[in-house]
Amino acid sequence: MHKLHIIAMAAVAALLDLAFFLAAPGAAQAETGFLETLHRQTTLTSTVPDNGDQNPYAVVVAPVSAGKIHKDDVLVDNFNDKNNLQGLGTSIVLVDPATKAMRLFAIIPRHLAQCPGGVGLTTAMTMLKSGWVIVGSLPSEDGTTATKGQGCLIVLDSQGKVANVLTSPNVNGPWGNMAVVDNDGRATLFLSNTGFGVGAPKDNAPVLNKATVLRIELEIAQGKPPTISSETVIGDGFGEQADKGVFVIGPTGLALGKNGTLYVSDALGNRIAAVPDAATRKDSAGTGRDVTKDGLLKRPLAMTIAPNGHLLVTNGLNGQIVEVDPDSGQQIYARWVDPNRAQTPPGSGDLFGIAITPAGDGFYFVEDEVNTLVLAR
Amino acid sequence: MQSLLRISPERMRRNHFLRRLGKLGALAMSLGLATSGIAPARGQEASPPPQSADAQEPNFFTGLLSPSRTNLLGDMGGLRTALGKYGLTLTLLDLNEAFGNASGGIKQSANYNGYTVMGLALDTQKGFGWDGGTANISAFQIRGRNLSSTNLLNLQTYSGIAADPTTRLWEVWYQQSFLNGKMDVKVGQQSLDNEFIVSQGSSLFINTMMGWPMVPSADLYAGGPAYPLSSLGVRLRANPVGPLTLLAGVFQDNPPGGPFDDDSQLRGSSAWGGNFLHVGSTGALLIAEAQYAVNQPSAGDIDDGQHAAGLPGTYKIGAWFDTAPFPSPRFDATGLSLADPTSSGLAQMEDTNFSLYAVADQMIWRPSADGAQALGLFTRIMAAPDDRNAIGFSVNGGATLKAPFEGRDNDTFGAGFGVARVSSYASALAQDAVYFTGAPTPIPSVETFVELTYQCQITPWWQLQPDFQYVFRPGGGIPNPDNPTLRIGDESIFGLRSSITF
User: Fold this and answer.
1) Number of folded domains that form chain B
2) B84 close to A (CB below 8 A)
3) Which residues of A touch B34 (CB under 8 A)?
4) CA dist list (Å): B353 to B224, B234, B359, B384, B387
5) Which of A293, B33, B67, B385 is the right S-S partner for A271, CB 3.0 to 4.6 Å?
6) Among A195, A319, A371, which residue's Cα sits nearest to residue B68?
C-alpha cells in the first residue's frame, strides 16, 4: 500500500506540473485580442415571432428603458417573412438576455405609403437614447431583387408604432448595420445603401460600383420623432450585386472609431475600408482607405467595435468573426462562432448582425439558419 | 437456403430524409419633397403614416420559386405560424419514384413506389421556457410496388424508401441536452439509421444499402430498429472534446417481435407502429459509435490565419451487440445440415450476435475553400460472424461531386458501389442442398452493385434525381426460380426520384 501511495502522489504531482506547464504560458502572455477572452456560447432564444418571420439580421442593445423596451434588451429584426422570402420581413423582437424571454416589439405594416416598395427590415437598425427606434427597409415583393423597392428608414416609437418614415434619393436599399452618434436632441446616423441600380439576381449578375455610405443628421424635438436635417454622402463607389442566395451583397458593416474614422466592411471588395473624419467631412471619400483586405475576411458583413478598440466583423462565407486592429490593419485572428457543418464552408451564410454586451464582456450575434440569438462571452 | 432467402426485399432501410410604391410616397417624390437635406416626413410626427391603399399581401404563389423558399406550402395557410407560437415545427416530405429494370432479374418491367413522412417537433424552450428539450413525433405512409420483390430478387435492394405498404407511426422521442450542449440524452421510439452508421456521402444514393447497410439489415431481427421501423430505447451522445463525438444506446432489438423467420414489418401492431409493449421481444440491442472529425472547426476555435485549412473528413468506428439468440444459417440443433432430409428443420440457435463497423467520409478536392464545389469519398465496411448470419461482410463506398457544373451549386453527382458477401455458412447450406438433392443449382457468394446518380435541385423544395444501378450476381448468385440451374441474370436498373418538401 505504501508503494502505491507514493506512486499515486507522484502521479498527482506530475499532473499538477503538466497543468502548470500548460497554463503558465497562457497566464504569462498578454492578451492579443478580445476574442480569446471569451469562454462559452449560449443560445438565448428563437427570434421567430408569432407572425412567423425568419432570418434575423440586425442586433441592437437597448441603451435605455422606454415603453416596451427595457435597458439592455436585445432588439432583433427579421428580413424574411413566414414563407422565408427575403425582403418581406416586418417584425422586430425584444430579447431579455437574463431570462432568455423573447417578446414582440413591433410588426410594421408591409406596405407603408411613404416607403417605396414596402417593408423588408434590414441590418440597418438602431435605438436612440431618446427611445426612438430607427430601422431600414430594403423590400421585395417575391423574395428576390427582381421586385426590389427603394426602401426607406422607418422611425418607431418605444411602443413599436410607426411614427415617421424617412425617404430620400440618397436612401436606396439601406442595408448595413448603422453607426450612430447619439446626443440629446440630435443624432448622426451612418448608413450604407446597396439598392442603386440593382436588378434581378442571376448567375454572374454584374457588380455595380454604386453603393454609398450616407451620413444623416437627425433632429429630435422633444416628444417628436426624429427628422432629417441634412444628408451627406461620405463614401461611394462601393460594389453591390444582386444575389440569388443572399438577396444583395454590398457594404454591410459600419463602425465608428474613437478617432472619428468610420470603418466600412466592403463585402464584395473583401476588405475593411476607412473613411476619415466621418462625422464632419463634407464630401465623399470614395471607397475609403484600405485598412485590411482578404486574409481571414470572407465576405465581411456586420461590424462592431470591441472594448479594446478592435473591429469585430462577421464573415458571410463562413461561421467566423474576425478581429482587426484598425490602427495597424492587422488581422489578429478569427473565432469560429458558427461551425455548422451543414453548410460549406461551415457556417457559410449563417452570420449577420453583432452587438457588444453592455458589460463589454462578450457579444450577441444571430444565427440565420436556425433563427436564434446567441451570446458569446 | 432458408435463412438466406429471408433477406427479403421488404427489409428495406434508408436514412431518414431527414430545410410597393405608395401613392403618397410617389406623390411626395414627384413634388420633389424628398430631396437631399429635406425630411419628407416632417410635419407627420403626430400621426402614423398611412398604409398603401393598393397594397397586396403575399399569397401562396408569391416567391414560389424564390431561392430562399424551402417548402412548397410555405406557411400552410397560417398553420405553421400558429404552431410556431408553441415551439412546434411541422415538416412534410413526399418522395415518389419510378424504377424499372431493362435487363436481368426474373422479368423486365417498371414499378412506382412512394413515401410521405410527416413530423412534428417541439422546442421546449420556445414552447414553455424549458431549456434544451426537443420532442419529436413522426409518421409515414408507404405505397407502391417494390421492384426488388417483383423483378430483381437482389440483396442490396434498389431503393431505401421502398418497403411494405402501410401507414405507420414512426419515431416518438424526447431529447434533453446538458452542459451547454456538450451532452444529450434521447429517450423513446427511435430509428437508429438517423444517427448510427451514417455516412454523409452515401446518403446521396438511392440504393437501400447506402442508408442502413447490408449487415444489420440482413442480420438483425426484422433488420433492426431502422426505417421503416423503430423501437424503444435510450441514446446518449457526448462531445467531450472538439472533434470527438461519442454515441451509445440500448434498444429493444426486434421492433415487430416474433421469431427470426416471422419478423415481418407488418407483424401485429407493428403494421401501424404500435408495438409499444414489445410483444415478442427477443433481446436488447446495444450499439456504440465513436466519431472523429478532422479539419472541422468547433465553436470557440481560434483561427490565426497562418495555417491553411485542411480538407474536412469524418471517421467513425462502432459496434453493435444483440443479446437475443440467432439461428445458424446452416445447422439444426443436432448439428445436421438444414438441407439434410433427416434434419429437424429447426435451426441451431447461437446465444448472441454482434458486428463491428467503420465509416469514413473525406473531402479530397475543392478548387476554393469558399466555394460549394467539392469532391468527396466515402466508405463503410462491416462484418458479423458467419455462423449466425446470412451476410458476413458488406462494404459500400463511392465518390460525390457537389456543384458539378457552374451555376449548379446545389446539385450533386455520385458514383458508388456496394458489395455483400453471403456468409460461408449460408453458402455451405446451398452446397449441402446440391449434395442432398443432386440438383446442380448455383451457389450464392457475393452480390455487387454500382450506382450512378445525379441529384438536381429544381427549387429548394423540389429535387429530381435520375439514377442508374447495375447489379452483378443478384442475390449473391441465387438460382433463377424460372430456371434453377442458372443464376438470375445481371440487372440494369433505371429510375427517377422526386423529392418535395411541403
Assistant:
1) 1
2) yes
3) 167-169
4) 12, 20, 20, 8, 10
5) A293
6) A371
pLDDT for the residue numbered B440: 85
Domain-embedded: residue B46: no
In a domain, B7, yes or no: no
Work out the number of other CB atoms within 10 angstroms of the CB of residue B70: 15
Chosen from A38, A111, A217, A243 to mutate, greatest number of chain B CBs within 10 A: A111
The answer to whether residue B60 is domain-embedded is no
Interface touch A168/B40, C-beta < 8 Å? yes
A59, A304, A375 from A356: Cα distances, Å = 9, 7, 10
In this complex, the residue of A38, A167, A318 whose CB is nearest that of residue B25 is: A167
| Chain A: residue whose CA lies nearest to B74 | A83
Q: Which pLDDT score, from 0 to 100, does residue B306 have?
A: 83
CB-CB neighbors (< 8 A) of B129 in chain A: 100-101
Q: pLDDT grade, residue B308 (50/70/90)?
A: confident
Chain B CB contacts of A43 below 8 Å: 181
Of the partner residues A82, A295, A319, the one whose CB lies closest to the CB of residue B81: A82
Alpha-carbon distance B408 to nearest alpha carbon in chain A (angstroms): 10
| b/e map A353-363, b = 16+ CB within 10 Å | bbbbbeeeebb
Chain B hits for A42, CB-CB cut-off 8 Å, are: 180
Min Cα distance B34 → chain A (Å) is 5
Choose the closest CB to B36 out of A35, A85, A231. Answer: A231
B304 touches chain A (CB under 8 A): yes
Distance CA B247, CA B356 (A): 15
Q: Is residue B38 domain-resident? A: no
Flag if A231 and B370 touch (Cβ within 8 Å). no
What is d(CA A231, CA A218) in angstroms, rounded to the nearest whole number?
9
User: Which residue segment(s) compose the domain that B420 sits in?
Assistant: 89-299+308-501
Please indicate whether, in this complex, the C-beta atoms of B129 and A342 are within 8 angstroms of each other.
Answer: no
Q: Are B458 and B69 in contact (CB under 8 A)?
A: no
- What are A117-134's pLDDT values in tens digits? 999 999 999 999 999 999
In angstroms, the first-to-last Cα distance of chain B is 44
CB contact under 8 A, B41 and A41: no
Contacts of A113 in chain B (CB under 8 A): 22-25, 49-53
pLDDT tens, position by position, A210-252: 999 999 999 999 889 999 999 999 999 999 999 988 999 999 9
- List pLDDT tens digits, range B444-462: 999 999 999 999 999 999 9
Q: Half-sphere exposure of A322 toward its Cβ, with a 13 Å CA cutoff?
A: 30
Chain A residues near residue B80 by CB distance under 8 angstroms: 52, 82
State which residue of chain A sits closest to B363, comparing Cα positions: A344
B23 touches chain A (CB under 8 A): yes
Domain A43-376 listed as CATH 1.10.260.40 = no
Chain B, nearest residue to A322 by Cα: B303
**What CATH number does residue B152 fall under?**
2.40.160.180
Cell of B469: 444501378
In tens digits, chain A (377 residues) has pLDDT values of 445 454 444 444 444 444 444 444 444 456 799 999 999 999 999 999 999 999 999 999 999 999 999 999 999 999 999 999 999 999 999 999 999 999 999 999 999 989 999 999 999 999 999 999 999 999 999 999 999 999 999 999 999 999 999 999 999 999 999 999 999 789 999 999 999 999 999 878 899 999 999 999 999 998 899 999 999 999 999 999 999 889 999 999 999 998 899 999 999 999 999 999 999 999 999 999 999 999 999 999 999 999 999 999 999 999 999 999 999 999 999 999 999 988 888 999 999 999 999 999 999 999 999 999 999 99
SS3 state of residue B437: helix
DSSP code string of B109-163: -EEEEEEEEEEEEEEHHHHHS-TTEEEEEEEEEEEE--HIIIII--SS-S-SS--
CB contact under 8 A, A109 and B51: yes
